[in-house]
C-alpha cells in the first residue's frame, strides 16, 4: 500500500512527521537507493527499501514493536528528547530503554506530572489531531486561598472545572497556599494563569496527574512504566472524536446530580422586643420578697437589703474614727 514517506518514517519511530519532512528536504531519505527531496512522495514499505537518518524501514527489516510509556516528569525538565540549550530532557529519565520513543504533547518546563511517550506514529498523530477533546487533570498550587464562589466564577470564565483537594501539609496546621484540582479540555492553562494573576492569586506550582484515561498515581517522580494493552485501548477510545470523556468526569457529574438537595430553612420571624418596664412587671414575684417600689424621682433613694443607702448614712467625723492604737484621730481640715 502506497503511503507518504513522512507517515512511514513517523510510524517507524525514527522521527516525528514534521521532523521527517525536514529529513526529506535535507536529502537524508532514500527509497531503493535513490535520494528523495520532494514532499508528498509515496512508497510501499512492504516492497520498497526506505532509509532515513541512517536507519532502514521496509523490506528486510524486522517488524518493530510499539512501545507505550507513562513518565512522571520532574520539574525543570524539557518535554523533548533533545535541547539545544543543554538542559535536562526526557532522555535522562529513560535510561535502560533501547527503543526510540518521542513524547506526545507538551508539558511546561517548570511543571511536573504525566507525560505520554510512544513510537506509534498513528496514535500520536490521532492524539495531536484531537488534542482539544482529550481531558487533562492538573493539581494547581496558588498563592493564598480561593473561596467556593471564586472557584465557580473562575471555572465559568475560563471554561473548566475547579475544586478543592486534600492539602499535603494539612496535618501540620493551616497552609498558607492551597492546592486545587483543575479539569480542562484544550490548552487553557495560559488563560487560567492570567485570570489568577489578575485575582492576586498567581500560580506557584503545576502538576499534571491525568491525561485522557491515563493517570500518574503510583508512579514515582522521574520513573516510567510500560502501559498494558488494556490501558492502550482505553487511551485509543478516549482520544477518538465524539467520545463521552473521562469516566471519572462522568462519575463526578452523576454524584453531583444524585446529591440530595438542601431543604429551605424557615425564615426567621421577628420577635417583638420587650421594654424594661414590661420585663419588670411580667417577672414573677418570689414569696416573702417585697416588690421594688417605683422611683418617683432622683430625690428618692431606695434601700438595699433593708439597709439605708450609703448616701443616707451619716458621715463619720474625726472623733468617731480611731487609730489602730485606740486614740481618736483628729478631724480633717
Provide a descriptive summary of the structure in words:
With 333 residues, the protein is of the alpha+beta class. It has a domain at 3-58: Structural Genomics Hypothetical 15.5 Kd Protein In mrcA-pckA Intergenic Region, Chain A. 23% of the residues lie in helices and 20% in strands. Strand 13 (203-211) and strand 14 form a beta hairpin. Helix 1 (5-12) crosses helix 2. The longest helix is centred in the C-terminal third of the chain and has 12 residues, at 247-258. It is elongated, with a radius of gyration of 40 Å. The relative contact order is 0.10. Mean pLDDT is 77; it is low at 245-256.
Write the layout of secondary structure elements.
Layout: E1 3-4, H1 5-12, H2 17-25, E2 29-31, E3 34-35, E4 42-43, E5 49-52, E6 55-58, E7 68-73, E8 102-104, E9 112-118, H3 121-129, E10 135-142, H4 148-158, E11 161-164, E12 178-185, H5 189-198, E13 203-211, E14 214-215, E15 224-226, H6 229-239, H7 247-258, H8 276-282
Parallel strand pairs: 9-13
Antiparallel strand pairs: 1-4, 2-3, 2-5, 5-6, 7-9, 7-15, 8-9, 10-12, 10-13, 11-12, 13-14
Amino acid at each position: 500500500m502506497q503511503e507518504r514517506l513522512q507517515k512511514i518514517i513517523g510510524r517507524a519511530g525514527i522521527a516525528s512527521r514534521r521532523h521527517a519532512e525536514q529529513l526529506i528536504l535535507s536529502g537524508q531519505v532514500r527509497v531503493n537507493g535513490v535520494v528523495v527531496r520532494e514532499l508528498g512522495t509515496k512508497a510501499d514499505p512492504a516492497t520498497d527499501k526506505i532509509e532515513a537518518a541512517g536507519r532502514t524501514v521496509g523490506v528486510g527489516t524486522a517488524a518493530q514493536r510499539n512501545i507505550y510509556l507513562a513518565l512522571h516528569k520532574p520539574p525543570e525538565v524539557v518535554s523533548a528528547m533533545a535541547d539545544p540549550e543543554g538542559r535536562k530532557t526526557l532522555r535522562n529519565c529513560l535510561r535502560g530503554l533501547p527503543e526510540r520513543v518521542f513524547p506526545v504533547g507538551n508539558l511546561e518546563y517548570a511543571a511536573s506530572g504525566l507525560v505520554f511517550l510512544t513510537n506509534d506514529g498513528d496514535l500520536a498523530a490521532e492524539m495531536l489531531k484531537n488534542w482539544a477533546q482529550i481531558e487533562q487533570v492538573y493539581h494547581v498550587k496558588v498563592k493564598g486561598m480561593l473561596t467556593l464562589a471564586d472557584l465557580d466564577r473562575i471555572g465559568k470564565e475560563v471554561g473548566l472545572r475547579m475544586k478543592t483537594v486534600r492539602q499535603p501539609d494539612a496535618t501540620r496546621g493551616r497552609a498558607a497556599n492551597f492546592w486545587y484540582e483543575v479539569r480542562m479540555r484544550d490548552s487553557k492553562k495560559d488563560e487560567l494563569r492570567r485570570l489568577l494573576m489578575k485575582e492576586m492569586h498567581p500560580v506557584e506550582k503545576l502538576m499534571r496527574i491525568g491525561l485522557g484515561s491515563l493517570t500518574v498515581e503510583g508512579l514515582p517522580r522521574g520513573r516510567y512504566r510500560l502501559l498494558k494493552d488494556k490501558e492502550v485501548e482505553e487511551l485509543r477510545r478516549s482520544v477518538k472524536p465524539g467520545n463521552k470523556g473521562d469516566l471519572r468526569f462522568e462519575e463526578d457529574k452523576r454524584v453531583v446530580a444524585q446529591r440530595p438537595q438542601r431543604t429551605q430553612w424557615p425564615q426567621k420571624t421577628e420577635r417583638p422586643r420587650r421594654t424594661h418596664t414590661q420585663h419588670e412587671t411580667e417577672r414573677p414575684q418570689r414569696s416573702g420578697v417585697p416588690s421594688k417600689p417605683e422611683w418617683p424621682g432622683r430625690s428618692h433613694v431606695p434601700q438595699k437589703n433593708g439597709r439605708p443607702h450609703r448616701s443616707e448614712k451619716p458621715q463619720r467625723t474625726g472623733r468617731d474614727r480611731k487609730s489602730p492604737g485606740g486614740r481618736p484621730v483628729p478631724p480633717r481640715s
